[in-house]
Amino acid sequence: MIIASNFKTNHTRQSTALFVNEVNDYIKKNNISSEVFVFPTATSLDSFEVVSNFSIGAQNAYPIVTGSFTGEIGTSQLDEFGIKTILIGHSERRHILGETQNKIAKKYDFYKELGYKIIYCIGEPLEVKNKGLDQTLEYIYEQFNEIDTKYENLILAYEPVWAIGTGVTATNDDIENIHRAIKEKFPKPLLYGGSVKVENVREICQIPNVDGALIGTASWKTEDFIQILENTKDL
């Protein structure tokens, strides 16, 4: 099972350190075997001493070592803290910050060449979902244009845009149908994201072809994230 927390624009350097240390202690004391990821803000990245199945990743970085890209970070900043995991293609970067598929693919290639573990996000907006499964899958498959899906350090995350942060979760049938189709075409670990909560994470992670969850809001409190790990530890 793979459980990941995306902090988005939340937590400070101090609160992130407390979160990571408490989660790490829980994983150690309870022999949690799940693969666990936390993606803090760029200003909260640090050199954390964590167990081998717990990784700290970057929410975003520019495909460069150093350069003149105001507001961005590159691999020189990530290398300082030994970061080798990154989120790419998240819907908020696609739809709010305007990252095109071409830019996403270039970023993907750059970090693939460096051997990063990549959690690659895909998903559809509501207007596409309402057109039916065939149109939804066509839209999702276009998000794999120029993406090397055979890359060994690739994890996929299906996040229906209409369910992110809205409190609306896709039905189990929706999740099962989409995940089955994606896994048949791209046989990689596949996470679900979209209003995953403490109360529903176990049920979602038991759906066929769901290999874990990428969680936003419901994972920002330490006790909630630990409970999510507890609820899924035997899956």
TrEMBL record:
Record-linked Pfam families: TIM
Catalyzed chemical reaction(s): D-glyceraldehyde 3-phosphate = dihydroxyacetone phosphate
Ligand binding (substrate): 6-8, 165, 195
GO CC annotation terms, alphabetical: cytosol
EC number: 5.3.1.1
GO biological process, one term: glycolytic process
Main location: cytoplasm
Catalytic residues in the record: 90 (electrophile), 159 (proton acceptor)
Coiled coil: none
Cell compartments where the protein resides: Cytoplasm
Chain ranges passing through the membrane: none
Keyword annotations: Cytoplasm, Gluconeogenesis, Glycolysis, Isomerase
SUPFAM superfamilies: Triosephosphate isomerase (TIM)
Signal peptide range in chain numbering: none
Family: Belongs to the triosephosphate isomerase family.
Main function: Involved in the gluconeogenesis. Catalyzes stereospecifically the conversion of dihydroxyacetone phosphate (DHAP) to D-glyceraldehyde-3-phosphate (G3P).
Assembly: Homodimer.
Name the UniProt record assigns to this protein: Triosephosphate isomerase
Organism in which the protein naturally occurs: Arcobacter acticola
Classification of source organism: Bacteria, Pseudomonadati, Campylobacterota, Epsilonproteobacteria, Campylobacterales
